[in-house]
Amino acid sequence: MQAELLKEARRQAEICNACRYCEGYCSVFPALHRLRAFSDADLMQFANLCHNCRGCFYACQYTAPHEFDLNLPGILADLRQDSWEEFAWPQAPAKAFQRNGVLIALVTVLGFALLFVAARFLGPAGGEGFYAVLSHTAMVAIFAPAFLFPLLSLGVSIRRYWGETGGGSVAFSDLKGALVSAAKMKNLAAGHGEGCNFEDEDRFSHARRHAHHLVMYGFLLCFAATTSGTVMHYAFGLHAPYPLWSLPKLLGVTGGLMLTAGAFWMVRLKLRSARELGSATAWGGEMAFVVLLGFVAGSGLALYLFGQTVAMPTLLALHLGAVLAFFLLTPFTKMAHGFYRMAALVREENSKRSSS
Amino acid sequence: MISQYDVAIIGGGNAALCAAMTAAEAGARVLILEAAPKPYRGGNSRHTRNFRCMHSKPAGPLVETYCEDEYFADLMKVTGGKTDEHLARLAIRRSEECLPWMQAHGVHFQPSLSGTLSLARTNAFFMGGGKGLVNAYYRTAERLGVEVLYEAVVTHLELEESLITRVDYTHGGAPNAISPKSVIVASGGFQADIDWLARAWGEQARNFLIRGTPYNRGVVLADLLDQGVESVGDPTQCHAVAIDGRAPKFDGGIVTRLDCVPFSIVVNKHAERFYDEGEDVWPKRYAIWGRLVAAQPDQVGYVIIDAKSLNLFMPSVFPPIKADTLEELAEKLGLPPDRLQATVAEFNAACGDTSPFHPTELDGVATAGLTPSKSNWARPITEPPFYGYSLRTGVTFTYLGLKVDENAQCSTRNGPIRNLWAAGETMAGSILGQGYLAGFGMTIGTVFGRIAGREAAAHAS
Ligand SMILES: Cc1cc2nc3c(=O)[nH]c(=O)nc-3n(C[C@H](O)[C@H](O)[C@H](O)COP(=O)(O)OP(=O)(O)OC[C@H]3O[C@@H](n4cnc5c(N)ncnc54)[C@H](O)[C@@H]3O)c2cc1C
Ligand code: SF4
Ligand code: SF4
User: What are φ and ψ of residue B232, in 5° steps?
Assistant: First the structure.
C-alpha cells in the first residue's frame, strides 16, 4: 500500500470528520464519523465503500483552489485502485492490467488468436451449429479453467480483504443489507435519491446509476443464460443451438442488449466526466474494461443475428476470444470492483451492527 | 449580456440567489454580479450548514414543533433584547414557508449531523452543506434565465436624489457600468477588509482570522454609507469565536472550530490562565472566547488538555500538538515551560472531587480558591500524553449594515430610495443588534432575499 496515498487519504478524512456536511450522501461518511482516528485498513474500507458518486466533491467548500484541496472521490479512487492491486492474487497481473488499457486490448487480441487457432486445429468433432466450429469438449477444456481460476483468485483476494479490515463473522442481515444496497445502487443515488454528479459537474442525474444497472443486470442475465445452457446440456441432454423461445436465448438476448447498451452509455458518460475525480491513472484500464465488456455482449448478439451466415465462424472466434480474455482478466481489472464492493458493503453492515 | 436589466443583484450568496430566483420568476431580467471567481462563488453561504426554521408540525428533516414565540424568545436571549421585534417576527414567521420553497428550488436536506443533536428540532441541515445549496440555486437561477457574471466587483452605486441611476463594476480588471431599473445589495459584511476591521476594532484585529470568504470587503456598504444611506448596527462590533490558531487567514470555515475549551485550561502566551473555561456549555460560550482571546497579548491563546479528555469533543481539522510531558508540550507550543508547569500545578491543586464529572451537562465539578476559577468540568491535568491547540479570534461577520424596512427597502434621511433593496448579512443588523442565533443568518437571507426580489421585480415592471 502506498504510504503517500494513505497519508493523503487520512488528511482528507480528518477534515471531513471535523466538517460532516456530507453525512447524508452515502455510507462512507457515517462509517468515517464513527471513528476518531483512521487506520490504514479503515481508509481502505472507506475507499471500497465509496461509489465515486462525486456528490461530496461538488458540495465541498474546501476543493482547490482552497488550500485544504479536498478531493475525497479522487483520493478514495486511487486508494481503492491500489487496494485491488495489493489484495489481488497473484499480484503481478493486477499491477499490470488494472491501469493499462493497452494491455487489456492485447490480451483480448490474444484471446481472439487463441480461439482462431483452436477452431483451426482442434476443430469440429462433427457437432452442429457452433460446435461445428469448435467441439463442445474443446470449449469446455478452454473455458472451465478460465472460469474457475478467476473465482479462486477472487476468493483469495476477498479473504485477504476481510482479514485486513478486521471483519467479524457475517450475519444473514449483513448480507441482506449489502445486497439491497448494491441491488439499488443506493450509494449512487446521493442520499436524497436524485442520483450522482458525473457527466455534468454538480448536476444530479441518474444516468450513471441507470447505465450501471444496465451493465450489471445485463451481465447477470448473460451469466444466467450460460448457466441455464450448462444445466440443460448436462442435466437434460438438451444441446445447443437453442431456439429463440428457450431460457438460454431469452436470457442471453435480453442480457446482451442491456449489457451492450449499458457499456456504450457508460463509455459516453465517462468521456464527459472529470478524470481527476476518479483514479486518473486507471482511466485507460477502466475504459478498456468497459469496452471489452461491451464487445463481449455485442459480439454475442452479432453471433445470434448472423449465426446462420458464413460470418459465423469468425464471429464465434471473436466472441469466445473476448469472453476468454474477460474471464481471465476479471480479478485483475475493474471487474474485480464488484466483489470488493460487496465485501465492503457487508463489512459496513457488520460494523454498524457491532457499534449499535 | 444584454444592456438593459430589470434587476441587478450585487453578490452571489444565499440572499442574492433567493432574490434572483424570485425576481426572475416574477418575469424580471436579472443579472447577478458576483465578485468571486466561480470556484469561490457563494460568499459565506457556502460555509453554512443549516437554517433555523419555525414549524407548527414536523417538516422535512425537522422533528416536533418550533413555534414563533419560542423562536423569538431564543432570539431575545442571545441578543439581550437588542432585536427589532417587528422585523424579527417577520423573518421567523416567513421561515416556515421557506423550507418547501427551498426544496422546490433544488435544495436537499438531511437529518441533523452527528454531534449536533441539540439542533434537530430547530435547524434544518442542508445536504452537503451550504455549497450544495448554493450550487443548486445557481442551477435553478440559470434555468430561470438569470445571468451571472463572476469576478465582477461592484465599486459604486450612483445615488441621485432617491434613485440609483448607475452601477459601476470592474470585470476582468476593466471598468463597466450598467443602469438597471432595480438594484439589490446582497454583498455581505465588511469583515474581509482587515484595514476597516482594524479601524473599527483596533490594531489587534490584524491578528484575527476571517472564517469565511475573502470577498466580503464591504465595498458597496462603504460606498452607500458615504452617500448617506441609512445604516444600523454597532460599527465597532463583529461576531467572533475562538478557532484553531493554525487555520488559514480566510475561508477556514467550520472545520477550524475547537470544542475542547470546557475540558481544558486556556492560557495566554505567558502561560497564565485568564478566564473561567467551564462557565457554561460550549454552544453558549464559544462566541465570547473570540473576544477573550482578542484581549490577550498577540491575540493568541493555548488550550491544554490531557489524555482523558481527548475524545470528549468533536475532532477538528488539525491534530493537536502532542507531548509526553508538560515541559515538552510547552516547548512545542512556544510557551515558557516553567510557567506552564506552575499554572497547571496550581490548577490541579485547586481541583476537588471529580466524581460527578459529566461532559455534556453543567456538572459543578469546580476549582476552589483559584482565580479565575473554573466552575464546571474541572479535572486535574495529569494524564500523559498532553495535548495543546493554539487559539485565535475568528471573525464570522460584522454587525454594521444597511437599515431596511419590512420590504427590505433602503432609505436615506429623506425617505426610501425608490429602487434599492438589501438582503442578507448586509442588512442583518436591522434585526440583530448583537449576539447571534445559530442558523438565523440563512433565515434572514432567505426571507429578505425573497422579499427584495419580489419588490425589485415589481418596481421594474
Ligand atoms: C464558517 C461559517 C459558518 C456559518 N454557518 C452558518 C449556518 O450554519 N447557518 C446560518 O444561518 N448562518 C451561518 N453562517 C452565517 C452565514 O454565512 C451568513 O449569515 C449568510 O451566508 C449570509 O448570506 P449573504 O448572502 O448575505 O452573504 P454571503 O453569502 O457572504 O454572500 C455575499 C456575496 O457578495 C459578494 N460580494 C461582496 N462584495 C461584492 C462586491 N463589491 N461586488 C460584487 N459582489 C460582492 C461575495 O463574493 C459573496 O458572493 C456561517 C458563517 C460562517 C463564516
Ligand atoms: S467533502 Fe468537504 S464538505 Fe464534505 S464532509 Fe468532507 S470537508 Fe466537509
Ligand atoms: S464520492 Fe460519493 S460515494 Fe464516494 S465518498 Fe463522496 S459522496 Fe460518498
Answer: -150, 155
